[in-house]
Structures are given as C-alpha cells and as structure tokens.
Protein 1
Amino acid sequence: MYQKNELLRAFIEKNCLLADVDISLSTGTQSSFYFDCKKATFDGEGLSLIVDGVLAIIDGLPEQPTAIGGLTMGADPIVAGVVARAYQLGRSPTHGSIVRKEPKKHGTKSKIENQLPSGTKIVVIDDVITSGGSIKTACKELIAEGYIVVGIIALVDRKAGGKESLEREFGPVHALFDKNDFPALRSLDEIETVAEAA
C-alpha cells in the first residue's frame, strides 16, 4: 500500500518546484509555479524513491499490469526505472512501452516503442498532471494498439482538473503527491487570494 514518502516530497520541493514564477505550461496557460520533475526522474536518488512509490501504488491496483508505459519524455526514465527494479525483485511489471509524439520517420516507423502483444495490461505513467493531455494521448494510442489500461499514475497532480478529466474517461488516477503537499504552494495560494481580493 502506498504511503507518501517525506524524503521524496522534500526532494521534489527542493529540486523540482519553481514557485512564484511566471511560466508557460504545455497546455498554453500561464502559471505561478512549475514542477520540473526531470530533476528527480534523471537523478539516482530521486528516481529510486519514485520507483518505490510507483510500485507501491501498482500493488494496490485491482488488476496487476505486466507493463508500464507513457508518452515520451515524462514517462521514459520512470518506465526504465520501474521495469529494472521489478525485474530485480522478480515481480511485474517487467516490460515497458513508450508512446512517441510523432511516428518514427525511419526504421519501423512505429509510434510505440517496444510494442507488446494485444491484450497486454499496462499502467500509464507521467511526471505531472495538469490538463491530463499527455496521459490521454498515451492511453488512446495504447488502447488503439490493443493494450488494456489498468491504471494511471503521476508523480504530481497540479490539481488543475486533469485528474478528474482522466478519471471520467479511463478510471482511477493515482498521484504520489498533489499541489497541496507542498507548503511553498500553500503560501503562494494565500498570497494570490489576498491579491485577488484587493
């Protein structure tokens, strides 16, 4: 069963969270905070803690996946970390698939790297949920190729409506953390609320 890990939360807050900024998100909206989770997923300590959390969430899923995957680039290091750790532990998921944003222009010209057989049960992963667009794209591509999505996991839910949108279409979505787990953002919310009221 998954329990929030304070070491990972503190790691993300210290290394990945940009607060009190003016930044453009992939959704095209502006935000006063940003999670650069690549600073955790491409770090040995950060990725190790993330993998522990992801495997704990997978343990609680009603259906167990044999694979994990997602849209490049947010999913890539997490997928690699999870399948390697799962293999070392003698458990699932030991297979990974990555959905490209565009099909390869050479070789197999595939849109899914390491395409697995139709009927493969997969959990879809991403680093951050805002609108849920990246995860939605990955789910649709995987389902179109015969995968069965049995769960969705993100490192951080920005609480911008994406989780709820994904749940309406694909079922339960799990996040290791959400925006409210970071005190710097709670104080930022208070400042913004006061500014809006003025």
Protein 2
Amino acid sequence: MTKSFDVSDVALGAFASVPPSEKLDHLVRLLSTWGGSDKFFMLVQAILKILDPFLRFRAGAQLRMGLSKSAASPAAESCRKFAGIIGDSRTSWRIWGLLPIFQWLISLERTPQPTRRHLQIERLQGWSMLGYYPFEHACYLLSHGIISSPRFKSKSLSMWSCRFWLAYVALQLFHLREDRTLLLAREHALRKAKGTGSLEKGRADLRRKWDAFWNELVENAANLPIAIDASLEQGLFKNELWTTVFGLIAAIAAFRGAWKATALPSPVSVTDDETTEEKTTTET
C-alpha cells in the first residue's frame, strides 16, 4: 500500500520535523519567572547600550574615511531608543516590587539563618529595599506626568532610590564575605571527611555554591560603581561609557545566575562508595 500524501500535513504539521530543544525549554522556564524575564531584558538592554556608542564611533570613522556623507547612525539611534523602551518597561514591571520584599522579610524572621550576621545583614537589605522601591515608583510616575509635585523632582527621587540600592549592594558584598567564610569551613570539613557515599555529592554541591558565590561577586562588584555614580549629583564617571561597560558585566553575571537557577537538576550518578553501601545493606 502506498502512503497517502496530505498537503495539509506537510503545511500545518511542518514542526513535526523540528526536534525538541532542551535550550528552548530552559529559556521558556527562565522567561516564565518574573526575575528571569527581568534578567533577560536587562542583558538585552545592556547589549543595546554598548552597541550605541560603538555604532556612533563607526559612523564617525566612516565619515572621516570618506565612506559616508554623514556622521549620524540610524542603527545607533534605534539601539538607544529600544534600550530606553526596555528600561522603562523594566521599571514599570517593578511597580509591585514591594510585595516580594514584604514576603522575604516575613519569611526571614521565621527561617533560621546560618549566623547572626547573616540575619542582621539581610534585615538591613530588606529595609533598604523598602526605601528603594517607593522612591523609584514615585520617580517613575512623576517623570511620566502621572503625578505632579512642585516640591519633588524626578532626578532627586531617582538619586535617593539609587542610594538605597547602593546600601543594598554594599550589604550584599558583606553578605558574600560571610558566605565565603561558611564555604571555606564546609570545604575544610569535606577535605577531612572519610570516603562515604554522600561525599562526592557534597563536593558537587560545594562546587555549585562556589560558582554561585563568584558569579554574585562579579555582579555586585560591577553594580557598585553604577550605584555610586547614580547616587551622586555630579556622578562618579565623566564618561558614560564606564557605567555602560559595568552594566554589561553585571547583566551577563545576573543572566548567568538566573540561567543556572532555572536549570533542571542533573541526574545523580551512583558512585562506587554508594554501590558498596547498597550491597552491604542488602547482604545484611
């Protein structure tokens, strides 16, 4: 028998030949979360902002070499506008940002922390965010003409919101210092431990935690000069390119952290020690 040929199957069922993609599944998981989608657009925005000066420089170079009649770069202007739209959208998405902060602070008082310092640092971080969001929301609404105030200016509100953000970033660096102490203690304990079935699992978990530690350190070290620059009336850098570069570094680290956080757990391999333990238990 010859297989019937249906044109509709070929046209409408074209995706039958497309294999499932783990990367696509992973990206959908990432973008399905509020934080994941924010990190994704943060990266896109940072790339657009770094492309803007590069494209303008290229247009100027082409003019000097006689390859172009104008120093204007439509592509650079498009990148700048798109980055602005994304930045505006990300700010509007954070309009309910206080809700998870309330949730975090409530949970913090009911969840045991590794040390007293961890607890105090996270308390201060929570309160700094309680200061950050109202100023950011007020600045956003004021700058778009949704509210009006003859007393407050959007630039002043923006600086105060960034000062609270600066406090959060600085506290996070202290938090990471405390995390490093705990990781070193854990590493020392694993080195002294004898061969057991869970030893390799503990080492793998430690490697993941060290990876997350260094990733967070890079992200917050890059955010620190940006926060300082935005907190000062005259700024920290005369050249805006510095904040753009630091923003790209922070965005890459943030996206990498979110990508790893939404990854499916890798299958646990059975070690020789675990096999031996299982055999011993069975024989007993």
